[in-house]
Design goal:
By secondary structure, the protein is mainly α. Helix content is about 65%, strand content about 5%. The chain has a three-stranded antiparallel sheet. β1, α3 and β2 form a beta-alpha-beta unit. It is flat.
Length: about 850
């Protein structure tokens, strides 16, 4: 079809008086003549308009046309296919009439006519519509919320999105906005006009049905309205014909076609009338319902909504039961919502109202904790403790206090935080309980072990954890054992009792795992997977991960445990040298963790960032930035973590003096916490290069962890094989036989996990130690050489001059950096020269000194007191 004609048909020609009302008193013959004349005029006008070019005419809302217009359309139907005219009619089939059906039938009988049904928008169409309305692609969940709310209707969707956008002009549209927003007035007015055309009995039924819910249950409506089944079904027929209500595919169920229809009707009912209807519906549900989950949720909703017209005690009881069922299904948000409603519904006049509030607060805290809302859970537990203390209820106060020690993978406190008030309360309760109630004693001990997890207090926590596990084993109840074993494993993690972790895991997983609840099983499996990574057993990790993930994601639906498992999976890739994949998983996991409403933003962010810098060779480039943060710490953990990271970064840059200054000024033994391994591993690498902090002290700290990888908590790699770190320290101490054993063990473990970074480090260590042993006369000589190479300023070593060894000043500088363990690219960056130039310098140095390798050069520099490399200059 060619371009549509720009000419308009004369509106006067098309104006037709409506039939019955306007034609009253006219003879049938006269009315027929007028209709025929109108037909001739319209047909002539359309034919004339289409003479020069085809015509497109759009007739909107044909279902609203009067009788005369529909009769005119029947007369025109036979002529339209002979004209260059395309008539496009829009019609709503939910508002049928006899004349409309006749007109459509006459149109479809002639050639060229076609009926095109228009269905609801699919999600892709809705996404495109939202983008056109808001100017940006919809966020996650928005389209699903619009489908749920508007049923894919483009008009409803457009009105809803425009209204929300007008109220939140500078904020992106969210799924929460879509679900929470009232029905736009434009939509409500249209829908209520359609309802207003229905018979009064039908309108009354729809009002009751809207208060009852989106699903129309005939038996419930019978009980509430007193209308028998036959008349009730007949009363719903007009609503079905109008497209407001749809029938179920099978059976006699009904539902509102769109949620907005339900919402509009519900909003049209007055507040008092709504509350009365809710009360009647709740009572009817109790008469007809079974013990199904849906019935309990409905009963809770209706009794809560009935307010003073219902039964407050029943409202609270049903809401708590709905929350408990949601907990059993892993629907944590639903559970928290039900319990929050129960809490708000407790009337002060209810018998034992304060005691009930204490109990509901504990239930709410558990639901929030399982759903990842850690801080909100703490607030609920704290409120319950305070209330129980105020009313003098020791048992309820204890129940709230031990809720902090429920099975969990990580402690829920801020790094370095201890709630002294809670500790004092628990220890007082421990004395009160004594040995008379072993099960409650286990819960108190486990909570103390979980809470005492930092610094010196972690040692007390470890004692409590051991007593809790021993007592739980004697009690023999799976629930208490699950609480005790999760607390034991957490306390062992922060005190780095790795052999004990492995022993308990082996004993528990081989024995009573089947008796433990799924949450405790996932906690045990996550710890087991961490130990697989720590020991370098990645094959078994890969074989066991899927089972743990299925339990966390499909059975428990726990966001916290899913984040934890993704983190340990990221750690698995990082230790194997797949930094890109591991970093991507870690970043997504960390972002998901931030959504959990936790206290774990720091030091987690710093630990991840600094370890990734180490693994990607970019720590040197960030040394100044880390040092600046050390000078202005924004978190209590930063002094402990940033100092070794900055020092190691400056060593990798070749600025050993700056690294030495940081070590002298900032080293303190790191407190026991889940981050302990990172500063220890970093300081070990610093001490290997500088001789400070004390290599002997660091060796003693790391020695119990020989045979492991230096992973931080369960999240990242901070130095490869611990044996390789021990090898460097032993070499610095002049204990070359030990160093050689550690270096070989470290190389074997690094090779097994496959990280090229640490394999090359371990190979270099093996060669350096071998060269040192070959060139040293005694162990004492090696120790003396290592110490004098990094002697303090008060005992300066004899200066090595370029002339003495026929090395240029630049060559001597390069030799010092090679001895410091820097790679050619790192030396090039430190000295602002190219990598080929570095290679040339190294080749000349080896030739002049008659050496064969960089390892021999490092030994030579150490043996001749060549001193540390000078800081890089331009």
């Amino acid at each position: 079809m060619g371009p549509v004609s720009g000419r308009r048909v004369d509106a006067r020609v098309l104006a037709v008086e409506p039939g019955p009302a306007r034609a009253a008193g006219r003879a049938p013959e006269e009315e027929s003549v007028r209709q025929f004349r109108a037909y001739e005029a319209v047909a002539a006008a359309l034919g004339e308009a289409a003479t020069g070019a085809p015509v497109l005419a759009v007739v909107d809302d044909l279902h609203a046309a009067d009788d005369a217009s529909l009769l005119l359309l029947q007369l025109l139907a036979g002529d339209l296919h002979r004209m260059a005219v395309l008539l496009l009619f829009t019609v709503r089939d939910t508002e049928p009439s006899r004349l409309l059906g006749q007109a459509l039938g006459e149109l479809l009988r002639h050639p060229g006519a076609e009926r095109v049904p228009v269905s609801a928008f699919d999600p892709a169409d809705l996404a495109a519509l939202v983008e056109s309305l808001t100017g940006e692609p919809p966020r996650a969940g928005v389209v699903a919320a619009l489908v749920e709310r508007a049923g894919g209707n483009p008009f409803y969707t457009t009105e809803l999105v425009r209204l929300i956008s007008s109220e939140h002009r500078r904020q992106p549209l969210t799924a929460g906005d879509v679900r929470a927003h009232d029905v736009p007035s434009g939509i409500r007015d249209v829908l209520l006009r359609r309802v207003g055309r229905l018979p009064e009995d039908t309108q009354s039924l729809l009002t009751v049905a809207a208060v009852a819910g989106r699903e129309l249950q005939p038996d419930l409506l019978e009980h509430v309205t007193g209308v028998d089944a036959e008349h009730l079904l007949l009363g719903l027929e007009p609503a079905i014909a109008a497209g407001l209500v749809t029938t179920a595919e099978d059976g006699w169920g009904f539902r509102f076609r769109h949620p907005l229809i339900h919402d509009s009707l519900y909003a049209s009912v007055g507040r008092v009338e709504r509350a009365r209807l809710h009360a009647r519906i709740a009572a009817a549900l109790e008469d007809i319902s079974s013990a199904s989950t849906a019935d309990v949720v409905q009963l809770a909703h209706h009794y809560l909504s009935a307010g003073p017209f219902g039964d407050p005690a029943k409202a609270v009881a049903y809401a708590r039961e709905a929350g408990a069922r949601a907990v059993r299904q892993g629907a944590w948000q639903d559970a928290a919502r039900h319990l929050e409603q129960a809490l708000a519904a407790i009337p002060p006049a209810l018998p034992d109202a304060d005691a009930t509030r204490c109990d509901v607060l504990v239930e709410l805290g558990h639901a929030r904790r399982s759903g990842g809302k850690i801080r909100e859970a703490h607030r609920a537990f704290d409120e319950s403790i305070s209330l129980a203390d105020r009313i003098g209820d020791e048992d309820r106060m204890l129940a709230a206090a031990v809720a902090f020690g429920s099975p969990q993978l990580w402690g829920s406190r801020e790094w370095g935080e201890t709630d002294r008030r809670l500790i004092a309360l628990l220890e007082r309760q421990l004395d009160r309980i004594g040995d008379h109630d072993p099960a409650r004693r286990v819960r108190i001990l486990a909570t103390l072990a979980t809470e005492l997890n930092f610094g010196e207090t972690a040692c007390r926590g470890w004692e409590y954890a051991n007593e809790a596990l021993d007592t739980a084993r004697r009690v023999g109840h799976p629930e208490e054992f699950g609480i005790a074993v999760s607390a034991y494993l957490w306390s062992a993690e922060v005190t780095y009792q790795v052999p004990q972790i492995r022993a308990v895991l082996d004993d528990t997983l081989e024995g009573s795992q089947g008796n433990l609840n799924p949450q405790v099983q996932v906690i045990l499996l996550a710890r087991l997977l961490t130990e697989r990574v720590r020991s370098g057993d990645l094959t078994r990790f890969d074989a066991e991960f899927a089972h743990a993930w299925r339990l966390a994601a499909d059975v428990l639906r726990s966001p916290e445990l899913q984040v934890a498992l993704r983190m340990v999976q990221a750690c698995r890739y990082l230790v194997a040298g797949d930094v890109e994949r591991g970093a991507a998983l870690m970043e997504s996991s960390h972002q998901a963790q931030l959504n959990l409403d936790t206290n774990w933003r720091e030091p987690g962010r710093f630990v991840l960032d600094s370890c990734l810098m180490l693994l990607t060779g970019t720590l040197a480039g960030h040394a100044e930035q880390i040092a600046a943060r050390l000078d202005r710490p924004d978190h209590r953990s930063i002094p402990h973590l940033a100092a070794p990271a900055a020092a190691l970064g400056f060593i990798q840059r070749g600025d050993l003096e700056r690294a030495r200054q940081i070590a002298a000024r900032s080293f303190t033994p790191p407190p026991r916490s889940w981050t302990w391994m990172q500063p220890i591993a970093y300081w070990a690498q610093v001490a290997t290069a500088l001789g400070v902090p004390s290599p002997a002290w660091l060796y003693d700290q790391l020695a119990p962890h020989a045979g492991q990888l230096a992973i931080v908590g369960m999240v990242t790699d901070s130095g490869g094989a611990v044996d390789s770190l021990l090898a460097g320290l032993a070499m610095r101490l002049g204990r070359l036989d030990e160093a050689a054993e550690h270096a070989q063990a470290g190389l074997a473990l690094d090779t097994r996990v496959g990280s090229e970074l640490w394999i090359n480090r371990s190979k270099d260590l093996v060669n350096q130690i071998a060269a040192a042993r070959a060139h040293a006369h005694t162990r004492d000589q090696i120790a003396a050489a290592a110490h004098t190479a990094t002697a303090p300023a008060m005992r300066p070593a004899p200066a090595v001059t370029a002339t003495a060894f026929e090395l240029s000043a630049r060559e001597l500088e390069v030799a010092r950096l090679v001895a410091g363990g820097l790679s050619n690219p790192a030396i090039a960056s430190a000295l602002f020269i190219s990598v080929p130039t570095v290679k040339t310098h190294v080749s000349h140095i080896l030739t002049k000194l008659g050496l064969d390798s960089r390892v021999q050069l490092a030994s030579w520099v150490a043996g001749h007191n060549a001193g540390p490399p000078t800081p890089a200059r331009g």
